Amino acid sequence: MRLFREFIKGLWRENPTFRMMLGLCPTLAVSTSVSNGLGMGIAATFVLTGSSLMVSLVRKVIPDKVRIPCFIVIIATFVTITDLFIKAFTPALGRSLGIYIPLIVVNCIVLGRAEAFASKRGPFESMIDAIGMGIGFTLALMLISAIREAAGSGSIAGIYFSKSFEAPLFMVLAPGALLTIGVLIGFMNYIFIKKKER
Amino acid sequence: MNQIARFGMVLGVICLLATLVLALTYQVTKPKIEEQLKKEEQAALKAISPYTDSFREKSIDGINYFEALKGGKLQGYCLRITANGYSGFIRLMAGIDLNGIITGVRVLEQQETPGLGARIDEVRPGENAPWFLRQFRGKDSRNLEVKKSIDAITGATISSRAVTEGITKAVVEFLSNIHKGK
Amino acid sequence: MNGMSAYLTIFISTVFVNNFILSRFLGLCPFIGVSKQIKPALSMGIAVTFVTTMAALITWPIYNFILIPYGLEYLRTIVFILVIASFVQFVEIVIQKKTPSLYKAFGIYLALITTNCAVLGVTVLNTDTFFVSGAAVAGSFIKSVVQGFGAGAGFTLAMILMAGIRERLEFADVPGCFKDIPITFIVASLMSLAFLGFSGFKI
After folding, report:
1. Helices (H) then strands (E): counts for chain B
2. Whether A179 and C185 lie within 8 Å, measured CB to CB
3. 3-class SS at A194?
C-alpha cells in the first residue's frame, strides 16, 4: 500500500512539472505536438527509472562528496543509450526532439529524484518513485502538447480538425508554451487552494 | 590525499563502466542507425527521380553523387547539397536530368524556424509532397532565382533563398566537373 | 558566410532571435528562481556567461580533436557534462581561495550552473550547428565561442529584463493563485512574443 502511494504521488500531488516545477526546459521546448510530448515523456521515464535504479543500487558504495558527479555520469550513460536507441529505431522522433534528448541529463527531475530519493532508499522503491514521476511528467507533457497543438496547428496527434482553421501560430512557438504553462500552473494552484479551504 | 584518491577511483570506475556500456550499445545500434540513414536516402532518391528505377553512387573530385538509371541507361543525376539556412544547415537532395532540368528536390534535414523557414518542408494535409519544393520541378537548375523563377515563402525569404541558391551553386559546380571529366 | 559579419550575425541571432531563455527555454530554472531582483539577476547572468563561453572554448577542441577522429561522437553528452561539471567545480575552488569577495558575490550561483540547461545546451548546439558530416566548418571554433558568449549574454539580458519587470510586479494586484510563478510565466510569454519580432533579422 505504501508502495502504491509512492507511485501515485508523482502523478498528481507531487507532479514534477506543475507542482514541483522541475524539468521545465524540455517541457516547454518539446510540447509542440502530442507525439513529441509522448516521445519525450517515454524517453525521460526510461532515463529516470534506469538511473534511479542504478543510483539506489550503488548508493552505499559512493562517497558523499563525489556523489553528484557520479550521479551525473550514471544519468548521462542512460541518456546516451536512449539517444542511440531513438536514432536507431525512431529517427523521426530524434529529429523532432533534437538537442533536448541529450539535455535530459540536466533535467532537474532526473538529478532531483536521484539526490532526494534514490540515494536514500532501496532499489525497488526508487524504481516505483521514478516510474510514478516519469508518468506524471509524461501526462503533464501531453496535456501541454495537446493544448498547444490544438490551438497552434489545429490538430491533435496529427489529425487535423478542419482544413480552414487558421491557427494562431504563436501557440506552437515559444510564447505559447510560456503562456500555457503559466495559466496551467495558476489553475493548479487554484485547485489546491480550494482543496485546502475545504 | 588518501580521500581524494578514493574519490578519484570511484569516479574513475564508474566512468569506465559507463564507457563500456556505451561502447557496447553503440556497436549494437550502429548498423541500425546506418540502415535508417540509407533508408532515408533511398526514399529521397526515389522521390526526386520519379522515372528511374535504380541508382549508382559515384564520386568525382571527392564529392559523391548518384547516377539515376532506367533500365541501365543514364537518365540524370542526384546530388547531396548542404545549404546555409537561416538557423543552420539545410541538407537537401536534388535530382536533375541530363539537360540540367530539375526532376525533384527533397529536404533531408533542416532547423529553420517552425511556421516560417521550416515551411520549405511543409506538406499540406491531403497532399503527399512539400508544396514549396514542387515548383522546382521542370526548371533549369542553372537559372534559379527567387522572385524571378522561384516564389519565396512569405516571411521566409532567407530560407527560400538558401534552398534556391544552394541548388544552383551545387549543380553548376557539379555539371562543370562532369564535363571536365568527360 | 565568413568573417566579421558572420560572427556578428551569430551573436545577434543568439542574443535576440533565438534567445536561449525566451526562445529555446534553456536556463529556465534560474530564470524563474533568481529573477526577482535586478542585482542577483545580473550576478547570475555574468556567472552564466563566463561558464558558457569557457565551456564552448573547452569543448570544441575536445570534440574536434578527440571525439571525431576516434569516432566517439556518441560520447559527446557524457564527456561534455563531465567537462562542464569539473570546470565549474574548479572555478569555484579557485575563486574561493583567491578572491573570497568574488566568491561571496557569485559563489552560490556557480553551483547551480552545472545543471543549467543553457551550458550543456550551447555546447551540444555548437556541435550540431558548426559541424557538418563529421567535419568542422570554416571558422567553426570562433563561431562556437561567439555562440557560447551570445548564449550567456542573451540569458543575462532576459534575466535583467524579467527582474526589472518583477520588481514592479510586486506592487501590482495579482490574483492569489497566479501570484509569483504563474504570472512570471505569463510575463515571460509576452516578452517572448516581443522577441519574436526579431525573427528574420539578419545582417
Report:
1. 3, 5
2. yes
3. helix
AA identity, residue C51: V
In this prediction, residues A169-182 reach a mean pLDDT of 84
SS3 label, residue B106:
strand
Would you tell me which residues 106-165 of chain C have a C-beta closer than 8 angstroms to some C-beta of chain A? 114-117, 120-121, 124-125, 128
Cα A167–chain centre separation: 27
For A26, C97, C160, the CA distances from C21, given in Å and listed in that order, are 12, 32, 12
Count of other CB atoms within 10 angstroms of residue B145: 11
Is the pLDDT at B75 greater than 90? The verdict is no
**What are the backbone dihedrals phi and psi of residue B74, each rounded to the nearest 5 degrees, phi first?**
-70, 120
Torsion A53-A58-A63-A69 (CA) sign: negative
Judge whether B33 and A87 are in contact, CB under 8 Å: yes
pLDDT > 60? residue B29: yes
Please tell me the distance from the alpha carbon of residue B159 to that of residue B169, in angstroms, as a whole number: 15
Q: Find out whether B104 and B141 touch, Cβ atoms under 8 Å.
A: no
Can you tell me the mean pLDDT for B134-157? 83
> Inter-chain contact B114–A77, Cβ cutoff 8 Å?
no
Among the partner-chain residues C1, C13, C74, the one whose CB lies closest to the CB of B26 is C74
Give the phi and the psi of residue A184 in degrees, each rounded to 5.
Answer: -65, -45
- The reply to whether C70 touches chain B by the CB within 8 Å rule is no
Q: Calculate how close chain C gets to A11, using CA atoms only, in Å.
A: 20
A130–chain B nearest CA distance, Å: 21
E strands, B52-88, are: 54-60, 63-70, 73-84
Q: Select the more confidently predicted residue: A17 or C48.
A: C48
> What would the DSSP string read from start to end of C81-138?
HHHHHHHHHHHHHHHHHH-HHHHHHHHHHHHHHTT-HHHHHHHHHHHHHSEETTEEPT
Q: What is the pLDDT of residue A85?
A: 92
Q: Which of A95, A177, A66, C82 is nearest to B6 (CA)?
A: A66
Nearest-CA neighbor of A95 among A35, A139, A169?
A: A35
Where exactly are the structural domains of chain C? 23-196
According to the model, what pLDDT value does residue A135 have? 92
Cell of A19: 507542482
Out of A74, A88, A172, the one facing B115 most closely (by C-beta) is A172
Give the closest residue to A107 by CA, choosing from A34, A192, A29: A29
CB contact under 8 A, A182 and C24: no
